[in-house]
Amino acid sequence: DFITKYRTCRQQVRVSLGKVDHHEGMSSDDELPSTEMTEFQKSKDDILEDTRKIFEDVRAEFSNIGQILLKFREWKEKFPDSYCDAYISLCLPKLLNPLIRAQLISWNPLEQNFTELEEMPWFGAIEEFSDAKNVSGSK
Length: 139
What we know:
There is one protein chain. This protein has helices at residues 2-17, 34-54, 60-63, 65-78, 80-85, 88-104, 121-138. The chain is mainly alpha-helical. The N and C termini lie far apart (63 Å). One of its GO terms (cellular component) is nucleus.
C-alpha cells in the first residue's frame, strides 16, 4: 500500500533527524523543509500580485460587482422586456464569475481569521440585487 510505505518513509526520516515530538495521526505539514515553505510562500505571493494586476486598468464601473449590478438593475427597471428577452438571470453568473474568483483567490477558510463568504462585499451586492429582483418580480 502506497500510503503505508509513504508513512513509514516519513517516520524513518523523522527518526534519522531525531524528531521525537511527532504524534502518530497528527498532520505532518510542519515537517516540510523551510526551503519548500519559502518557495510556496513566494509562489503564493506572486499569484496574489498577478491577481491584483488583472483589473488595475479597468474602470470601476466594469470591475466592481456592486456597480455592475446597479447597471443591470437600471436596465431592468427602464426596459423590463429587453432585460427579460436577454436572459440576464442566466448570464449574470458567467459575467460575475471572474470577478468573484479574483476576490476569492486569497480566501482560505482553513485560516484562523478568515472572512465568512456572507461578509464579503460582493456577496452583499449579489444578495441585495437578488432581493431587489424578487421584490420587483412580485409587483
